[in-house]
Structures are given as structure tokens and as C-alpha cells.
Design goal:
This protein is α/β, with parallel strands linked by helices. It is 38% helix and 12% strand. The chain binds flavin mononucleotide.
Length: 413
């Protein structure tokens, strides 16, 4: 049996906060907010279940900093203190048993579907690839004033998150959303101080970090989820990503979560990973091994972990401090507790496809299926690991139609 002790050891972050073990729940968008993007009791219940499940660090699904810029309907947005009391209930339930509960803050930029954004914004007026044109309108270029305003929004949201009692905050800097768009030389072709050199492209994320830190102080965990690469021609490369990790480390970031990919190249789901990588379970381990000795900040690698042995090897190998899990915790919210106690050794996360080509080609069956399990947990039911993807598809169709199906979850987040 693998040496589970290395997974059970607490981790002290540079801000002084302690994560009670090495398992982190990576963000999964719940889409359980109200039609006007306010939190609900369903979120309180869902995070209560995860906190009871033994995971040391729980990161919420992406919460938007602007209700006019959504990734999908049902996102929660935090712009001010209007929902403070419900946020407090959410924070309290999800941080029981010394669970670290961090809110992931996001702005989708151009990855905001046309059913929610008539004209999304982006660093440059460059649309997504033509195959996305029915679902995403071409973006408008942000003015320098708009950029400052978005940075301010991240800081304001972080202050509310802290006041509500969440124990940390994470910037969504991965998966092709606005921060990731700024980092990419393909999506960011600005000629001002926000584009061009890597230093200029990284200015947006560095300013967001500084603005958040100013609001929350030095003793509060601030994290980022960052792409190891965009996997797109002309996009953000692995070497550039490592330089940005160094910049964030020097600035004082507490934890950097490594992922990769965008809507255009969804590597975060493991869709295109090489067989040799799959053998090692985690999709982005090699990147972590390369960056580890260059930075002091804590690292969390997310994507593909399924066995106790794979997780122990990754921690003992020294390349990562935390193991990030998403899909496993949607089907077994107490998977971490069971794994750490030795009650289980692994989890089988199989592809969620209907077998009907036309539907599966829509590609987003997976996310819809997992979100359905989150809804079940939130309603006090147990997840259904064998629930038919076809029935989940039909259910979603009845709710929102084909366009809704594709755009609501046209994401691998
Ligand atoms: C239903 C669902 C929603 C997701 N939402 C987000 C999100 O809001 N923010 C984010 O950074 N990643 C999101 N992801 C990606 C996961 O955090 C994770 O990077 C990915 O699923 C790979 O990890 P896994 O192999 O353990 O599932 C989502 C994934 C799923 C399945």
C-alpha cells in the first residue's frame, strides 16, 4: 500500500495559513446561482458536503467579478456586499473542520457565450476560432480605463470574499479566460503597456494580484490557477508560463495551481494528452518538475490524478506540494477522507459520452454530466456515478434547448 502519510501531512503556506492535508479540490463551476447571479442555499449544502469529505483545500467554482460578463448562466457574481449574509453561510459551511475554502474569481473575457454577452470584451478584438462563431460574438477591445476597472473589480470581490469568511482567494488565470487572454501573444496584440513583451502581457495579472493583496493583507492566502501552456499555435508557451510563475513567486503568491488549455484546445480535461503522460496519471507533472526548483511558492498540480499511488508518488517526488482533484470529487464528495484513511485506493473516472455521435461531437457532455452530479449533492442526494449521459443530455435539453446545452456548458473551464 502506498505511504499515505505524505498525503496527510499539513502544508504551511508562506502567508502562515495551514492546509490540513495535501488534497485540494480544484474549481468546478456549479452554475447554481440565481438568474440574477446571486448565491443560493444549494451552494451552502454542496460545500458543507465537501467540507465533511476530508479535502484539505476546497476551491469554489469560478465566481464572476462582473455580472455583465458571465462564463455561463447561473454563475455567482460578487460586485459588492449585497449578498454578504448568504456568502457568510456558504463560507461557514464550507470551512468546517478546518477546511481551507477559497473563492476562485474570474472574468471570462471573450469566452462569454452570446446567450449571456452580446459583446464580450478582450485584450484585442480577436474572435475565437470560426467554429465557435455561432456561440460567441466577436469581442470588443478593452480601453486602458476598462482594464483598470476590471482590476479594481477583482480587488473589490476579494475584499468581500474575505469579509464573508472564506479563508482565501484564487485568481482564475487559466483556460483561456480574460487573464489567460492577456498572457497570450495570440489573443493579446495590444500596442500599449498591456501588450507586446511578456512583461507587458503579464502586467494585467500582476496588477490584479497587487490590488487583491492590498485589500486582503499579507496573512491571507492568495492563489492563482495558471496554464502551463495554451497548447495553441502562437499562444502562451511553457517557457513563458514558467517565467510568469517566477514573477508571481517573487511578488508573494501563496499557491500556484498548474493546469493548461483553453476552449480552443481543452487540454485541462486530458483529452489530447500523450499515452506516456497518461501513464503518470497527472497531465502537467513534467511542467511541475521543471519549475519546482525555480520557485519557492507552493504548487498544486491538477488534472488526471486518480490513484493513491499516483498522488503519493507526485508528492514524494517533490515536484508538487498539493494534489488537485476535480471530477473525482463530483462523484465521491468524501473521496479524500476515504483515500486518506486507506478505505479506498483509487477512483474510476470514465468518459461520459452518450454513444450518439451527433451529441458527443458537441463535446461538452462531460461538463454537463459532472455539473448534474454537483446539483444532486447540493439537493442532498447522492451522486449517481452510473447515471446515463443520454438522460442527463435530455434533461438539460428540456431545460435550455440545444443552444443552451452547447453554450451553457461550452467549456472545460
Ligand atoms: C463540471 C466542471 C466544471 C469546472 N469548472 C471549473 C472552474 O470553474 N474553474 C476552473 O479553474 N476549472 C474548472 N474545471 C476544471 C477542473 O478544475 C480541472 O482543472 C479539470 O477537471 C481536470 O481535473 P480532473 O482530471 O481532476 O477532473 C471544471 C471541470 C468540470 C468537470
Amino acid at each position: 500500500m502506498s505511504n499515505l502519510e505524505s498525503l496527510s501531512k499539513p502544508l504551511t503556506l508562506r502567508c502562515g495559513a495551514v492546509i490540513k492535508n495535501r488534497i485540494g479540490k480544484s474549481a468546478m463551476s456549479e452554475a447554481l446561482g440565481t438568474v440574477d447571479n446571486r448565491p443560493t442555499e444549494l451552494l451552502v449544502k454542496l460545500y458543507d458536503a465537501w467540507a465533511k469529505g476530508g479535502t484539505g483545500l476546497v476551491i469554489t467554482g469560478n465566481v464572476m467579478v462582473d455580472r455583465l460578463a458571465l462564463g455561463e448562466p447561473g454563475n455567482v457574481a460578487i460586485e459588492d456586499e449585497r449578498d454578504l449574509s448568504l456568502l457568510q453561510r456558504w463560507a461557514q459551511a464550507g470551512s468546517r473542520d478546518d477546511t481551507q475554502l477559497w473563492v476562485q474569481l474570474n472574468h471570462p473575457g471573450k469566452q462569454s457565450p452570446n446567450m449571456v454577452s452580446k459583446q464580450p470584451v478582450a485584450p484585442s478584438a480577436i474572435p475565437l476560432e470560426p467554429r465557435f462563431s455561432s456561440y460567441f460574438n466577436p469581442p470588443r477591445e478593452l480601453s486602458p480605463g476598462d482594464i483598470e476597472a476590471v482590476i479594481e473589480r477583482f480587488a473589490t470581490a476579494a475584499a468581500v470574499v474575505k469579509k464573508a469568511g472564506f479563508t482565501g482567494v484564487q485568481i482564475h488565470g487559466a483556460h483561456g479566460y480574460l487573464v489567460s487572454q492577456f498572457l497570450s501573444p495570440h489573443h493579446n496584440q495590444r500596442k500599449d503597456q498591456w501588450g507586446g513583451s511578456l512583461e507587458n502581457r503579464a502586467r494585467f495579472v500582476m496588477e490584479i494580484y497587487k490590488a487583491i493583496r492590498q485589500q486582503v493583507g499579507d496573512e491571507y492566502p492568495v492563489s492563482i490557477k495558471l496554464n502551463s501552456a495554451d497548447f495553441q499555435r502562437g499562444g502562451f508557451t511553457e517557457e513563458e508560463s514558467m517565467t510568469v510563475v517566477e514573477m508571481l513567486d517573487q511578488a508573494g503568491m501563496d499557491l500556484i495551481e498548474i493546469s493548461g488549455g483553453t476552449y480552443e484546445a481543452p487540454e485541462m480535461t486530458g483529452k489530447n494528452v500523450k499515452a506516456s503522460t497518461k501513464e503518470r496519471e497527472a497531465y502537467f507533472m513534467e511542467y511541475a518538475e521543471n519549475i519546482r526548483s525555480r520557485v519557492k511558492t507552493a504548487l498544486m498540480v491538477t488534472g488526471g490524478f486518480r490513484t493513491a499511488q499516483g498522488m503519493v508518488d507526485a508528492i514524494e517526488g517533490g515536484a508538487t506540494d498539493m494534489i488537485g482533484l476535480a471530477r473525482p470529487l463530483a462523484v465521491e464528495p468524501d473521496f479524500s477522507a476515504r483515500l486518506l484513511s486507506g478505505a479506498t485506493q483509487s477512483i474510476d473516472v470514465k468518459p461520459r459520452i452518450t454513444g450518439i455521435k451527433a451529441i458527443d461531437d458537441m463535446a461538452m457532455m462531460e461538463t454537463v454530466w459532472y455539473a448534474r452530479q454537483l446539483e444532486r449533492i447540493a439537493k442532498g442526494k447522492t451522486p449517481k456515478p452510473n447515471e446515463s449521459p443520454f438522460l442527463v443530455f435530455l434533461r438539460q435539453m428540456l431545460r435550455s434547448g440545444v443552444k443552451g446545452f452547447r453554450t451553457q456548458r461550452l467549456r472545460a473551464n
